[in-house]
Design a protein that fits this description.
Helices cover 38% and strands 15% of the residues. By secondary structure, the chain is α/β, with parallel strands linked by helices. Helix 7 crosses helix 8. It is globular, with a radius of gyration of 20 Å.
């Protein structure tokens, strides 16, 4: 059965861009007589807040959406992500990266002006890694694409997915060796999203085109973990008058503020071209 989802993070109030994405997924499920699933991606423990999660339910109900219960909250499934991470470690696919965000940005800034691509990272020699661990320095677990290609073998060059009605050959190199977890935290967006989609039986991932490149690495994780690859649909982004994406910090376009100002969901749908 057709099944899709809307998966916001409770790090602020939903805005017009969220409304467009949620309605797009909901309308697709309705047209296929399928399932619409709401998932709360609350793994950012420093920014997620209960009041924002409560507002998500309130805002979506105001828009006229209904969803299956209970709602899956990622923070309740850390053990699942940790188990998958351990499977990838056992296959020798992960390595520790001790570079901070500042160090990575400095490395990129010092590269030639034509530089574009993934972050400049690589596994450390065992002796150097031991030295870093001895100091207690924080690190991230990165997925080695080179090792992943070796494990997947001949199928590596055949990896791909359907997106917006076309077959797309996977190009995971454009993202490089992504972060899957950190020293004391068992999952990143990529790992949790892939596992949740499989667990919830998602057949169609409908999301903004800003996340289109994520599918190139998600198909790698799906292959490594023996998970199905859903069909992807990447929709246009809703931009403000300056051509910029809406942000949660822009209070004037939050669904909460629009509701309080007397704007109706019908008027919002029309303004979004739905």
């Amino acid at each position: 059965m057709f099944a899709t989802r809307f998966a916001p993070s409770p790090t602020g109030y939903l805005h017009l861009g969220h409304a467009f994405s949620a309605w797009t997924a909901f309308d697709a499920a309705q047209s296929e007589q399928g399932r619409f699933i709401l998932r709360i991606e609350d793994t950012d423990l420093t920014r997620c807040r209960p009041e924002f999660e409560a507002a998500i339910y309130e805002d979506l109900a105001w828009l006229g959406l209904t969803w299956e219960s209970p709602v899956r909250r990622q923070s309740d499934h850390m053990a699942d992500y940790e188990a998958a991470l351990e499977r990838l470690k056992a296959l020798g696919l992960l390595y520790r990266c001790f570079k901070t965000r500042k160090e990575l940005m400095e490395a990129i800034a010092s590269a030639p002006h034509s530089f574009s691509g993934p972050e400049p990272v690589a596994p450390l020699p065992p002796s150097d890694e031991a030295d870093q661990l001895a100091t207690g320095k924080a690190y991230a677990w990165r997925l080695s694409l080179a090792r992943s290609a070796a494990v997947i073998g001949a199928d590596w060059d055949r990896l791909g997915f359907e997106a917006n009605g076309q077959w797309v050959k996977a190009d995971p190199g454009q993202l490089g060796d992504i972060v899957l977890a950190r020293k004391e935290f068992p999952s990143s967006y990529h790992l949790a999203s892939v596992l949740d989609d499989a667990s919830q039986g998602i057949t169609h991932v409908i999301r903004g085109e800003d996340l289109a490149e994520a599918a190139h690495i998600h198909v790698v994780l799906q292959k490594l973990l023996g998970l199905p690859t859903p069909i992807y649909r990447h929709h246009r982004l809703i931009l403000d008058a300056d051509g910029k994406r809406f942000a949660k910090r822009n209070q004037s376009v939050t669904l909460r503020s629009l509701r309080e100002s007397g704007t109706s969901p019908a008027l919002i749908r029309t303004s979004l071209g739905l």
